[in-house]
Amino acid sequence: MNASTRRIWPRFFALLLSFLVASCGSDYTLTDQFEEDLTRITTHLSYFKDAHGRYLFVHGANVSGSSKFPTVYKPISYVGKPFPLDEADWNFQQLQRLGFNTLRLVMTWEAIEPNAPGEYDQAYLDFIEAIVAKANEYGIYCLMDMHQDLFSRHINQLFYDCSDGLSLEDEDDIEKAKTCSLPKSQWACCAQDDSECKSAQASPNNIVRGDGAPKWVVQLCLPEKEVYGDSWGLPPDCVKKTPKSKYTTDFFPFTLWGINAFLSLDVNRCFATFFAGSQIYPEYKVMEDGVEKNIQVYLQDHFAEAWRQVARRVSKYPNVLGYDILNEPTGIYILFTVYALFWKEASSAPGGMLTDAQVNELLEDFTEELVRQGTSQEAAKKLRDVLRQYDLLPRSTAQIVQSGFYPQAAASEYKPDINAALALNLNFNRNYLQPFHKKVGDVILEEDPDAILFVELSLGLSDTGLAGMMAFPMLRPEGFHQMAYAPHYYTDIYPEIGMNKNPRVFTVEEKFFRDYTSEIQKAIEPSTFSLGNPPTVIGEFGTYFNFGGIETSMAQDYEVSSVVLDRYFESFEKMFLHHIQWCYSPENTMENGEGWNKEDFSLLGPDRKPRSALAYSRPYPRFLSGKPVSMHFYSDFHYYDPDAYIPDPRREFEVTFKTRETDAPSEIFVPPIQYPDGFYVYLSDGHCYYDPDRFILYYYPHKLDPGTLHNLRIRPPYPDYGDRDWKYFFRGKEVITNP
User: Fold this and answer.
1) Cβ-based neighbour number of residue 169 at 10 Å
2) Running DSSP on this structure, what letter comes out for residue 172?
3) Sign (positive or negative) of CA dihedral 521, 523, 526, 527
4) Which CATH number fits domain 1-37+619-739: 1.25.10.10, 2.60.40.1180, 3.40.640.10, 1.10.260.40?
5) What's residue 168's pLDDT?
6) How much is the pTM?
């Protein structure tokens, strides 16, 4: 480095201050600049823009997976999730240092309205408001997320792991699991007979469950059951009562827990009641304040009012990015429709019994219809195999009555409309999800008229029809003037279908050359297909950190996980696509991951230190003062094809944007983990300065001509081989300028 080009920090800072004094006053500081950055975000076509006119780029983390279950079970309280207030500063410092400018704040309906309709947990609402306020101090936006998976944690199965003992949180669950005597079961065993326990296949988990709705909602959706009675959650063969279906749930302990969305009748019934109760159960009414309401209206009213409580608390904060109305709504009702179809046939069969031939014919007809609606032949075959393997097909009206699907009493208000049930899978997003979003969104807008409403489509059949024909997709709900689309995308990382499946085993080579771009493009297609091209954010993506087992993965320094994450980010950067990673959880442990179904996605490891950070703590533009054009970052996990005498562009970041639209600076986050020895900055025009306390590079382009492209490139120190046109070199508070 030529000493004649060196300029020490005081001289640069004096020049900086002279520039700032001219425009902002003599007492203006970098802290002032940072604090003025955070303004309420609005939507503009397919972009997010701040009050300064800059383009926001969302680079976020979900916080957190452990928010799916309570902090305390008696009485139920979620205060302290995702982390206690006295640990908030430590966690926000971590998030800020890693570079996240947005967090998707995971909440559940149960956390807000846990015990009874209309009784809100004010302590939890106080807590959530405090978390949003603290995020504001750190310059981090919050996307408020009402989370659910498989409807509720009160739909579950309990297990006794003979090798490790019981590790359930709820003492009642522990006592129930101890009473179950099921020798040599593939998923449960009891402590009363050690020999049976030793010969049984020990489960890697003590409970598989959902999250979201409170118990009182589940009880309304499954009215004939004793939700959380003495036997609730035990495997059916453990229950000594008849009919067994009344005293427990049909929830399966699949390691790939999400399969229950398709194969649990109880989960299907809860979602059908919540989304389509007016059509499926037209006679099911609930009295509230002297008014009789259909069950769907009643439940959705309470869900919307729970959102009102949140919006009322947080709408005043400028860092509220928006409201994600419902996480991953389920829109495919396999078992529910199977039961409706089989009831229709069995009710007219001799003795209400179906023959094996009839059962097989009905199953073939059903799966062929799914194929006609867009399901792949491979998926349909796998579905047929699973339905047969786990004996999920009903064979008589008596069995269907016993399941709770169809009440025995002829005049029961819980009797489903069979024709409505058979049609439930078809056009679910337009028929049921769109009006639901409209209803809830309108309530949020009453409290926060400037809200950006984030919508997700259901997990179900495609909205785009077959080869573009016969499409009946969801549209932007009327009155949603500020809306964003928030689909999720996970690559092939999940365990195989079955129980007690070990984590997947991958080699680096198996993932190294993957390109997820085309699959991500499919995931975001509805944005332009029918939703009006709003801003699109991948609201969840991520990878497991326990491939091959957590010990193996740790010994390899999470290399496979790092490669998978890098492939995600290279696709996002290529597409300039907003993204929020799943997840950041300080509760992660070696034994239980985030603590919910033993998932292990957390960016913090069991030692509470970031893992695979070189893959996701990347340079990116927090804000751009012109329309984005292109961006890339080449991490250590990028595939390099070397050119002779030219160094690999390791850790090179480059962003290009169009004509400057505002005097406010573009901001580039420059992660310290990527540039411990400092970094060079190359500019097409203009000047910049660096805030080493917050790792933000401020860039002021000079040219204002229409059509001008502004370019900024960053690279770490390595042999330049003639690449000497850099403008600045920053290392902490030291700066070198190149005249």
Assistant:
1) 14
2) H
3) negative
4) 2.60.40.1180
5) 60
6) 0.92
**Closest among 62, 168, 60, 58 to 601, alpha carbons compared:** 62
Please give the Cα distance from 499 to 497 (Å, whole number). Answer: 7
Cα–Cα distance between 556 and 547 in angstroms, integer? 10
- Token representation of residue 280: 């499926």
Torsion, Cα 493 494 497 499, to 10 degrees, reads 130
pLDDT digits over 81-131, tens only?
999 999 999 999 999 999 999 999 999 999 999 999 999 999 999 999 999
pLDDT higher than threshold 50 for residue 739 = yes
Which residue shows structure tokens 């009555």?
A: 401
Contact 188, 180 (CB under 8 A): yes
**Helix (H) or strand (E) segment spanning residue 92:** helix 88-98
In the block, residue with structure tokens 């085309």:
518
Residue type, position 358, single letter: Q
N-to-C CA span, the chain:
13
Confidence of residue 195 (pLDDT cuts 50, 70, 90): very low
Other CB atoms within a 10 A radius of the CB of residue 274 amount to: 25
pLDDT tens per residue, range 566-605: 999 999 999 999 999 999 999 999 988 999 999 999 999 9
Burial 447-463 (b: 16+ CB within 10 A, else e): bbeebbbbbbbbebbbb
Span 664-705, pLDDT tens digits: 999 999 999 999 999 999 999 999 999 999 999 999 999 999
Is the CB of residue 715 less than 8 Å from the CB of residue 649? yes
For residue 262, what are its two tokens?
């398709």
Task: Cite the residue boundaries of each domain of the chain with CATH code 2.60.40.1180.
Answer: 1-37+619-739
Q: Cβ-count burial of 619 within 10 angstroms (0-12 exposed, 13-18 middle, 19+ buried)?
A: buried
Q: Which residue has the higher pLDDT, 6 or 90?
A: 90
What is the amino acid identity at position 507?
T
